[in-house]
Specification:
Number of helices: 1
Helix content: under 10%
Strand content: 25-35%
Shape: globular
Number of strands: 8
Structural class: mainly beta
Length: 156
């Protein structure tokens, strides 16, 4: 492991289930993030969090995360809606000194929302995505049958 793959050190105390998320904030200069919908300058999608209770969120285009002393690159950029603490200057993970990349410290139990964007024609987005081998594993029918063992469901 090379030195620039070490994530940011803990702030003041070690939190065993802390995840450091590295990326850029898409809603940094305005209340919403903007996404191109493939129609050029004619149309775009705006995404924001509305809360009557004053909850704020960062819409993060994430590149990597740090956990348990190691930094990992995501297989592709992913978009998350992260509530709670705002971003900090990025440290570790190879992002030191980057003015655009920030980091968010969250716990493993923190609720976040992943936003998935697919763009293409209906054949690719709907039909081809449902072909065997392209679906997510939990979409396949899986059945589980348990036989009792003298009235018990465990091997103990």
């Amino acid at each position: 492991m090379i030195d620039d793959n070490i994530p940011a050190p803990p702030k003041s105390q070690y939190i065993p289930d802390e995840i450091v998320l590295y990326g850029i904030r898409l809603n940094k200069t305005m209340e919403h993030a903007r996404f191109d919908v493939g129609l050029g300058k004619k149309a775009e999608v705006h995404l924001s969090l509305f809360s009557e209770k004053g909850i704020t969120a960062s819409i993060v285009l994430a590149y990597a995360y740090g956990f348990d002393g190691h930094c990992y690159r995501l297989d592709s950029n992913r978009i998350f809606l992260v509530t709670g603490n705002g971003p900090e200057e990025a440290k570790g993970g190879g992002f030191d000194g980057s003015k655009d990349v920030k980091m968010w410290r969250i716990k493993a139990s923190t609720q976040i929302l992943e936003i998935t964007m697919n763009f293409g024609d209906a054949r690719n987005v709907i039909l081809d995505a449902q072909l065997p081998g392209k679906r997510s594993p939990n979409s396949y029918a899986i059945t589980l049958r348990m036989a009792h063992r003298d009235g018990r469901f465990s091997r103990d």
